Amino acid sequence: MITAALVGTFGGLAYSMASKGGDSSEPMAVAALAPSPGEGASDISCSSIFVVDGDTFRCDGKRIRLQGIDAPELDGHCRPGRQCTPGDPIASTDNLEGLMARGTTRCNQTDTDRYGRIVARCTSKGVDLSCEQVRSGHAVLRYAPISC
């Protein structure tokens, strides 16, 4: 028998632990579950948006990185030694711009990355931007598990 329990949160992520038999001294796995839009620690509504690339934009001057995805890098942005996501960075950027042009963009901050950007789950007119970028082939799932 496998049992699971919520054991805590860290950086906006909920962690659960599963164990064998009910003996909590033998953990089997720990999973991090990224919150969906509407479940984050900090609500952000954007009135002024500038899309940087397929997974990053500026919202009223704040740099926001979409949670759980990686989009192709613009020319010259893939650091040596890094395996960057393949694909067309211009098409990915254009797709994100189109998604955000549909309506008001709202974000829930889940973390801050090592570059000081807000990491967030964001929606525009009810469409989850991370999930839609992946669904349309303009990004891949990476960095944090998300549920689409």
Written overview of the protein:
It is a single chain. The protein is mostly beta strands. Helix content is 13%, strand content 43%. The protein is built from two helices and twelve strands. The strands form three sheets. Strands 4, 5, 6, 7, 9, 10 and 11 form a seven-stranded mixed sheet that branches. The protein has a three-stranded antiparallel sheet with strand order 1-2-3, with no helix packed on it. The chain is globular and about 35 Å long. The N terminus is likely disordered.
List the helices and strands and how they pair.
Layout: E1 2-10, E2 13-20, E3 27-33, E4 42-46, E5 49-53, E6 56-59, E7 62-66, E8 69-70, H1 89-100, E9 105-112, E10 118-124, E11 127-128, H2 129-135, E12 140-141
Question: Short summary of the structure?
Answer:
The protein contains 2 helices and 12 strands, in the order E-E-E-E-E-E-E-E-H-E-E-E-H-E.
* Major β-sheet annotation: 7 strands, mixed
Assembly category: single chain
Fraction of residues in H or I helices = 10-25%
Pick out the low-confidence regions.
Answer: 1-40
Q: Please, how many helices? A: 2
Calculate the mean pLDDT score and round it. Answer: 77
Structural class: mainly beta
Gyration radius, in Å = 17 Å
Q: Could you spell the SSE succession in H and E letters? A: EEEEEEEEHEEEHE
Shape: globular
In whole angstroms, the N-to-C terminal distance is: 28 Å
> What is the strand content?
35-45%
Number of strands: 12
